[in-house]
Amino acid sequence: MKGWFTKFLAAQVLLFSYTAFAADPAGFPAYVEQLKVAAKEQGFSADTIERAFTDATFYERAVSADRNQPEMKLTLDTYLPKAVPDWKVKQGIEMYNKHRDLLEAIGEEYGVQPRFIVALWGVETNFGRFTGNFKVVSALATMAYEGRREAFFKKQLMQALQIIEAGHIEPEQMRGSWAGAMGQTQFMPSSFLAYAVDYDKDGKIDVWNSQGDVFASAANYLATVGWDNSQTWGRQVRLPENFDLELAGRDKKRSLAEWQELGVRRYDGSDLPIRDLKAGLVIPDDENGRVFLSYKNWDVLMDWNRSNYFVAVVGHLADRIQLGR
User: Fold this and answer.
1) 172 and 318 housed in the same domain
2) Does 262 map to a domain?
3) Are the C-beta atoms of 318 and 118 separated by less than 8 Å?
4) Alpha-carbon span 166 to 204, nearest angstrom
5) What is the pLDDT of residue 68?
6) pTM for the whole thing?
7) HSE value, Cβ hemisphere, 13 Å, CA-based, for 71
């Protein structure tokens, strides 16, 4: 459900054949009336309910996108260069420099290196250019009506109503992905309520238009989940011949000295850093593909999106921004 990354990945894979809708679109208006009753029972004002559900739309494209999830046919070794092309790195460096003062102030306040804020921004929405144009309330209502994950999407919908009732955004401007991920951060409503920040102190949290709110919200998410700005995210490494792959696993952490003793080396063949760090060993594909030591911040990025590919893309982009700025 994560913005540009998901769209890009879908474009690189083979799609399943179209599956017929389980829910009849003709029943959607009646379902919306049920949602209104539920919202009233939860204490939302009549004004909020009326504004939120005005012109509620059944999005067949959302149901189709959800049901036609892509089947992975790539390896990270071929995917990563496509996901982090030179033009994206160049734009990342430009955006870092353009917003340097703001990014560095937020980075210092929240304890998150600014290059990772920019990298997440670039991966999620191509630096704010592609945030989605689905009306979030309608998208969430559609997905709840579709039925397979009704409880999840209905809860997200009620949380979207909280955001509207608090005055952060008008329903018509509350736009996002087909799954309801919103703004330049692509937060679901639950993440918005948990992590989004009114950095510019204008009384509204605006992850659609306020760069301060966008950057601080991303930084607050990472910091709250456990980001450690004394570390990076991970590093690509080489394994010795006949390495015991049973030692691999993000949760099977060892010290860098222990990995060194086991024959793991930097990708260029040199010794691992001499630091008191614990790391897991992540092999996204197989031992013939890319291999990484994963630090604590890898785990934090996995909380944002539970995909090793996603973490590798964000980390790789952040590293290249750091080198080029």
Assistant:
1) no
2) yes
3) yes
4) 8
5) 64
6) 0.90
7) 4
